Amino acid sequence: MRPFPNLLIVDDTEENLIFLESVIRKSKVNLIRALSGFEALERIEGMELALAIIDVNMPGMNGYELAEKINGDRLGEKVPVIFITASHIRETDALKGYGSGAVDYILKPFNYTFLQSKINVFLDLYNQRIKIIKDAEVLKKSIDSLAVVHAALKKSEEKFRSVTLSAKDAIITADSAGIISGWNKGAEQIFGYTEKEVAGKELAVIMPSPHAERHGNYISRVVQGGEYHAIGKTIELSGLHKNGNEFPIELSLAEWSTESGRFFTGIIRDISDRKRGEEALRKSEELFRSVVNNSLDLTTLTDAEGKIVFISPQCEKVVGYSADTFIGKTIPEIIHPEDVGRCQQMWEKVLNNDLEIKDYEYRIIDGQGETRWVSHSAKLININGKVLGIQNTISNITERKKAEEAIKVSEEKYRTMLNASPDGILIINMKGVITEVSDIAFELLGAEIRDDLVGKKITRFIPPDEKSMMHEIIERTLNEGLAQNVGIKIRKKQQTLFAAEISTTLIQDPNGAPLSFMVILRDISQRKKMETKQMHADRMANLGEMASGIAHEINQPLNIISLVMDKILFESAKTETIEYEFLKKKSDKIFENITRMRNIIDHIRAFSRSHEEYVLTAFDVNTSIENATSMIMAQFKHLGITLNVQLGRQIPQILGNIYKLEQVILNLLVNAKDAVIEKKNKRQDYFEMIIGVESYLENQLLIVEITDNGIGISNDDIQHVILPFYTTKDEGQGTGLGLTICYQIIKEMGGTIEIISDTVHGTKIKLLLEIQRKK
Which of 277, 484, 576, 725 has its CA 20 to 30 A from that of 207? Predict the structure, then answer.
């Protein structure tokens, strides 16, 4: 087997080199890596390169300078260079790159498959060059055979000056003046002229003008000038075809005389194929010598008996011994004792079955007594059914084996960590197919064996009404890198559902290209039940705290009813009759206030009811704000708190639960009330307690903003106030669950909460709700 081509990769970032190595790993190349242009020049000194992949922007020596140095001293073909860059290439820089050998530019981050295909193109070119070597070897033997035939033909031409006109070679006869008098079929095929077209013309008709000037029309000079020293010799010249194409020819001249005068016969052969073969053979031999001498791998040749007759200069570097150690020997006595038996079987398979062995791995003992791993490829040199020997290519893969072992250990650690997590962990590929599963995930999804999950799409375990949510989670992860603590329902293998919380993380390669997703799955069924109970308890606590305000709201219409009845009785006592219009007007007033009380009681009843199974509907946010403020307005007036409500116009409806949003607003208003009262109690001077509620649209978001000028939240507390059971209030004045419940409710509606606060200006809390969720 021929040695693999040298491929140079240069990048000043180690992670980029690792990625390139991972792309090239499966390609059959000898990889040369460098972190700078200077290191690259040092490593490739004297080497023949098949391809160079170079980063444009590097310190010290940029990619263009390195490419110019690589190709500057090369007499043959330039080394093809693929430049890698993270920014757009200017036209001037692109031209400069192409002048130094560039064949392509690739922008970072690049696609794995795209780069692999680029590399494969140049490997295909390399294989074609290898084929040329083989073809050239066969052609050389053919040429040698033709030379023997030609020598015999030459002798025959000297003995027999009259040759049949049907010969394949051109046979041309001319007189001493250089006028053509004879022209066979071979000449017609080679030069394209018929005998009739050239008869009587000078020999110069088949010689190109520049050639004729350079050689002084050699044929004519010999014929006319009597240069007898040229007679009987074979020379190479250029011929001119009728179509104007110039091509190489081989000419042999013979002289003969008759009574009519002196004549010459020229035997001309078109040697275009031979010249191409010779050039291909020359280039192939140069390429083979360069590849063998500069390859990182060791190349050896054995004869038909299996004895080593050739070994390349890399011997000591690859196996740790000098080449003299192995010349004339068969299987070297350096193979690890445990691998000798199977190596012997490998050789027998090659010799007995004419097999080609690729990348056969075994261990050897180097000159220092250390164990090395090598990869061995072997192929019989078989010509015409006769085995001439074996070509071997040996690579030192010790470092690769160490890396593989390290990866194996790393994978074991990864698996241990995966299974040690208290939450279920799934790894899914970019197509949504599960590739790895932790033990906890098996339990959560009700699986019994690995095949129940691995290889299945994650959407199989998502109910139809939740699939759009799962797609949103994936999209958010792709765009932002992660999605955290998203509530979703999960279907077990047994088709039962449970409430879950999903967090996803995007796994990327060193260049930022997405590889897969890590999904953390948590069963929150019990937590959901506790939160529901706590939200209901919190709602009742709010009602209890607002009891005086609610009593005031109901007492006011009762007072109005009482006054109206007193008025009716007073009027009836004066006249003993009541006019219909007066009675109807007063009755309408009574029923109006009765309806008002009924509405207050109905709203309190609906608000206090558990909404665990409530179906999400579209509702008006401003209505929710008005309902919430109406329940607390009287209490604020009693405490001397100014409540400013500013509701935006044309606020769109959103999808959710109107009563849960009321609970959020009530919680925040109660917190604001406590904050302004605490600040007033701490100040000695006059302090106006102000709380504001505002709704408006901004950047495609519906925002509800609650502000107060109260005591504020310190920097140490603001990062923790949303955590469960964390409170800044005195003992017995708060559970620490109010903001947590608010956060969960807003999160269920697809929104977020922002808190801005300090101890000077007070607190501003924004509820940010996506308009896209409207109906």
Answer: 277
